[in-house]
């Protein structure tokens, strides 16, 4: 699975350094598409997922990936998949 660069949200996260030519809107789109692909492969649908480049009617330099609302069983399935992924990651390290 390809890992995407995700910019730091605050000054305390020094582990991630933003590439000088990063287009944050493009990164948000890539992250959304990557997440949409993987949840689709897991037979999960997030129909409201989108990139939100506006906050309170103003364009922002830090777009958000909106995941949208889901039914409780979908949230439970996502949690299950994340637990499985973390278990596999722990086994590999």
Mind telling me the C-alpha Rg? 15 Å
Shape descriptor reads globular
Quickly give the structural class. Answer: alpha+beta
Strand fraction equals 15-25%
Low-confidence stretches: 12-21
The profile of the biggest β sheet is:
2 strands, antiparallel
Please provide the count of β strands.
2
What does this molecule look like?
Residues 12-21 have low confidence and may be disordered. The protein has one domain. β1 (50-55) and β2 form a beta hairpin. It contains 2 helices and 2 strands, in the order αββα. The protein starts with 23 loop residues before the first helix and ends with a helix. With 93 residues, it is an alpha+beta fold. The chain has helices at residues 24-41, 72-92; strands at 50-55, 58-66. The protein has a two-stranded antiparallel ribbon.
Features:
93 residues; two-stranded antiparallel sheet; 16% strand; globular; 42% helix; alpha+beta
What's the SSE blueprint?
Elements lengths: L23 H18 L8 E6 L2 E9 L5 H21 L1
Antiparallel strand pairs: 1-2
Brief overview:
This protein is of the alpha+beta class and 93 residues long.
